[in-house]
């Protein structure tokens, strides 16, 4: 019996299409010879569409995307579009509309990977970033704009419902990992209302996971440990904005954003989850075949894992680890990296 | 003619009193033989007072502190006090009531200093963190607390008045530095209202400083550069929360929070400015003579600079640089470090 995965492909802007092409190449190889087929639908979303039509994501686009099992996204954003238009109107709209409340971002220092740290230690943690609340809700506004009396506010909205579900997901992930450790990162000494909600929720949900050790760090202190002792972390759970900041830093210390994968996941599986590299559209190197597609390839692995195709996911991440171990710093084109990874995955396909 | 500086001393909690004692020791030596006298008033503020009286900072305390020329603060915070009580009720209350809108935090990698980075490069930048607005205003609240329907909000408030004055201060500082470069850090693609106010303000004020080069980074990208290329920064201007996060990270890469000094400055000089190490009260090592007082000593140097005593300030920072260059990693007690720094400052006192 053949299983068909309906995949919505949002290649996006800048280097997005280049890295997505390699992600799909590796995906095809990983599934070759299996009973799983992928049916891809490309979605023309991003800067070009906006310039042409003024549209970011229409109701029709969203309805069509909902008919899929997963989304692979390259990168969104372009300096020719006013800041925020594509981020709020497309990328965040997808995350919010599809209720991607778990933004999953693993960090691992692969043997041989270049890192700015003198001695990173054995780094292997995952950030569970809340994806549908916090300062990202778009609940801001301004009065007297452009005058000396302007006031611009941004509201971080946090609900028991929203915090509890992501915290429970993070505990479950921690419980399934060998070290079973969860660190809440917030700033409850300043953001007392939101912070105390997070804190109480971790305490309450933690009672259901007695075998998971719980730790707390203020966000400022967490950045210190991410550079002085990143190996201490196992699962980090945090809000949308702190998660944004911490995961870029985490990427920087573990091989750079060229390697950082992410999943925007709806664990309830009522909507397609979305997989994307953490990096942006990098307009400065777009179209030059210089982008590293590894983060997208690892995002494909996260997608396969989410879809229950654990073996195929593992083959991809093993291929990446093997490739990284042999990298010598010489520049390779985007497609050369994709080819190399595809070849390694092919080697690993069981006969 | 003798000049008298009225100094309010808030030693605070944990290691606060220990490091403040060394800061004052070095201050005395730096001013010895000059025509500047320091008249100190200790203020009993912090956890012990709160436990005894339930008070954090009374109107009388504040009125008395206002009568001073400057404040030296050790550290505030204690795990026996509910989170937020002393931070909001004392530390942030001082910063807000005294309108410390420039939170100045220099970062320098002194030769010989241990850093977690393999190759930090020539790091010498200063973060100008806004100190009286943003998510720190305490404009949050929650409903249905403790129920499954709780909603907890935190409001970031940003005004043209507040943003413009700190941006102007940052530009002036950039102009006075050899590299003349200013980097705005924000997240204007998500926090569009606040972000665009900051952005427009930097553009407008920048027109008055045509010789200062201006750059922009999203806060997540800024954390990447702080570990991959911190030498690129000269002056960073940013909001209260981003500044909190970036300065802890900056401290971590440039020798640790044992060295990070800060000034909470009111450039209009209508109130006393406050100088404090970036580190916290570190209850785990309090009372053991293990805390490094260098950050407090460097905060004293910032204070002297603010008070126009530039030569004395320089003697202290030179003494710190010389001491760091000869540190061999052997543990020294808090007072031993203070003594060593005081001795070096004494050597430098002009005959
Ligand atoms: C592009 C931007 C809106 C986005 C975010 O802030 O979430 C990005 O930084 C990310 O981390 O995926
Ligand atoms: C103690 C806390 C309220 C404070 C802050 O967040 O500003 C501290 O982290 C700092 O950076 O001075």
TrEMBL record, chains A, B:
Question: What residues does the record give for site: Important for catalysis?
Answer: 136, 187
Q: Where does NAD(+) bind?
A: 280-292
Binding of Mg(2+): at which residues?
220, 244, 248
MF terms per GO, please? 3-isopropylmalate dehydrogenase activity; magnesium ion binding; NAD binding
Q: Does the keyword Manganese apply?
A: yes
Q: Which UniProt keywords apply?
A: Amino-acid biosynthesis, Branched-chain amino acid biosynthesis, Cytoplasm, Leucine biosynthesis, Magnesium, Manganese, Metal-binding, NAD, Oxidoreductase
Provide one Gene Ontology cellular component: cytoplasm
Cofactor(s) needed by this chain: Mn(2+); Mg(2+)
- List this protein's GO terms for biological process: L-leucine biosynthetic process
SUPFAM superfamilies per record = Isocitrate/Isopropylmalate dehydrogenase-like
**What is the official name of this protein in its record?**
3-isopropylmalate dehydrogenase
Gene symbol here is leuB
Q: What does this protein do?
A: Catalyzes the oxidation of 3-carboxy-2-hydroxy-4-methylpentanoate (3-isopropylmalate) to 3-carboxy-4-methyl-2-oxopentanoate. The product decarboxylates to 4-methyl-2 oxopentanoate.
What binding partners and quaternary form does the record give? Homodimer.
Which locations, inside or outside the cell, does it occupy?
A: Cytoplasm
């Amino acid at each position: 019996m053949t299983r068909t995965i309906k995949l919505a492909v949002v290649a996006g802007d800048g280097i997005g299409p280049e890295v997505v092409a390699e992600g799909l190449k590796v995906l095809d190889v990983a599934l070759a010879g299996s009973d799983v087929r992928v049916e891809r639908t490309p979605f023309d979303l991003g800067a070009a569409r906006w310039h042409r039509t003024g549209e970011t994501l229409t109701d029709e686009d969203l309805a069509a995307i909902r008919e899929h099992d997963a989304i692979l996204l390259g990168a969104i954003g372009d300096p020719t579009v006013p800041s925020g238009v594509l981020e709020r109107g497309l990328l965040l709209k997808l995350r919010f509309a599809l209720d991607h409340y778990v933004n999953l971002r693993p960090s691992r220092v692969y043997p041989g990977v270049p890192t700015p740290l003198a001695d990173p230690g054995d780094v292997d943690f995952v950030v569970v970033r809340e994806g549908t609340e916090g300062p990202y809700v778009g609940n801001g506004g301004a009065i007297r704009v452009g005058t000396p009396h302007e006031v611009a506010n941004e509201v971080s909205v946090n609900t028991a419902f929203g915090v509890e579900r992501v915290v429970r997901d993070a505990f479950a992930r921690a419980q399934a990992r060998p070290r079973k450790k969860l660190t809440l990162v917030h700033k409850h000494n300043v953001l007392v209302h939101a912070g105390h909600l997070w804190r109480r929720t971790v305490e309450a949900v933690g009672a259901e996971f007695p075998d998971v050790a719980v730790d707390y760090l203020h966000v400022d202190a967490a950045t210190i440990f991410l550079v002085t002792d990143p190996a201490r972390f196992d699962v980090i759970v945090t809000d949308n904005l702190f998660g944004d900041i911490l995961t870029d830093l985490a990427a920087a210390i573990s091989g750079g954003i060229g390697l950082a994968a992410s999943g925007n996941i709806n664990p309830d599986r009522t909507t397609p989850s979305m997989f994307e590299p953490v990096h942006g559209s990098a307009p400065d190197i777009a179209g030059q075949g210089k982008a590293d597609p590894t983060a997208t390839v690892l995002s494909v692995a996260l997608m396969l894992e989410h879809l229950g195709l654990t073996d195929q996911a593992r083959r991809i991440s093993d291929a990446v680890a093997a490739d990284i171990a042999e990298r010598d710093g010489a520049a390779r084109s985007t497609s050369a990296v994709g080819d190399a990874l595809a070849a390694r995955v092919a080697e690993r396909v069981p006969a």
